[in-house]
Every structure is written in structure tokens, then in C-alpha cells.
Amino acid sequence: MSVDSWISMWRGGFAVCFFGASQFLVCCILAMILYPGGNFADRHSKGYSPTRNFVSDLGRTVSVSGQPNPVSSRIFNVSLLVFATSLAPFYFFMPMQAWDKTTPLVFAALIGGLASIALMIAAMHPTDLYPSQHYLALFAWVFCLFLSTSIHGFSLLTSRENVRLVMPLVSLAVAMLAIGYCISATETAYAFVFFKPDVPLQSAVLEKLVFISAMIWLFAFSLRMLLFTDFSEYRMKQRDIDAEEYLGQIGARRSVD
Description:
Blueprint: H1 3-34, H2 70-86, H3 88-92, H4 102-124, H5 131-157, H6 166-193, H7 202-227, H8 243-256
Helix pairs in contact: 1-2, 1-7, 2-4, 4-5, 5-6, 6-7
């Protein structure tokens, strides 16, 4: 494979990730508009409440109010599945974001891959039909997101090659929101399991913050890698060198420096 082909794969991969996040954001807004109504604080409410409804409510085949929700659920679940699939190239290229931190970034990418699989499982198991599978998959996604973004943020923060602080700080901010949601969601799950009269709904807001911050994280890194990566150093001076061998030489030279 030539370096030019590798660069085309890089750009195409991050373009796919950017498209996946964009379509999910648009489909979420459309699903919110079409959602019939009902939340756990007021089952007879109309429409979707940003502060009281969970994001997962959009994927219910029957809304909390008991009304059929075929269109909204189909839009949300399909777009979530597309989004989870589109993350594959993002995590595939993650170890190359800092050559001196390849090993921890490989672990971050593998954990991120598990997060994507968990998100796929959540999309294929609507909360009203498969509550246990859905919530376990959602919790696994958030926890894996926390681990992946934590390792990613610390790796870039301590890398000798990374001179920008904004991106690693965004990763760490996503990690903090994710662990905060894990704690809050545990309290909410306890209330649901034991039929507590007052279900703490602050996790509904935190859930949205986690999704929004994850979107910002993906948008920012995808655009940075897509538009602002300098490929001049990766261009081959000798066309007979294999792309992987050339990139390996660059990584070895950078680690020595």
C-alpha cells in the first residue's frame, strides 16, 4: 500500500466518523419532534422533555405514556447503529495521533471498540422490550467511554509531540462527565428496581451531557484529523518503500528524538 493510499484511508475514515456523528445528531432532533410523549415524572405529558426524558426513550417502540412510537424509535435506533459503526475508523487511527504514546493509545482504541459494540447492542435492544440488555449495554458504553477518553486524554497531555492542550482537556472533560453519569445512573437504576416513588431524574440531564460532550469530542477530533493533519512528513521520498515500513521508520525516529 502506498502512502497516498494510506492518507486517503485516513481522510476517508475520519469523514465517515464525522458523517456518523452528524446524522445521529440530526436524527435525534427529528426523533424528539416525533416522540408522542410521557416521561417517568409525568406519564401524561406531551412530546419530549429535554430535562425529564432520557435519550433512550426515543428508541422505545411504545412511549412512556403508552402510545405507539414506531417512527421515532426506528429513526433513533437505526441512526444509533450507524453512529456506533462509524466509530470504527476513529478508533482504528487513534494510536497514530501520538507516536510516542502508541501503546496506551492502542489500549484506548481497543476499549473504544468495546464501547462501540456496547452502543450497537443498546441500539438493537429498545429499552421497553429489552430493559436489562439495554441498560447493561448503555452502562458498558459509558464506562468504556470513560476509560478510553481518560487514557486518550492523559496520553496526549503527556506526549512530547502534542503541543495543543485543548484536545486532551476535551477528552478528560468527557471522561469526568461519563463517570459522573455512571454514579448518577446507578442511583436512578436503584430507584427503578425498588420502585421508589421519587425517581432521581438528574441522570436524564447528565445522560444528554454525556452524549453532547461525546459528540463534541468526536466532531473536534474528526475535523482536526481530517482538515489539519500535516502529511508532508509522511510523503515518500523513495516510491519503492512500503507505506507501513515508512510510517514505522518515522515513528521510530520520533521516539528516539
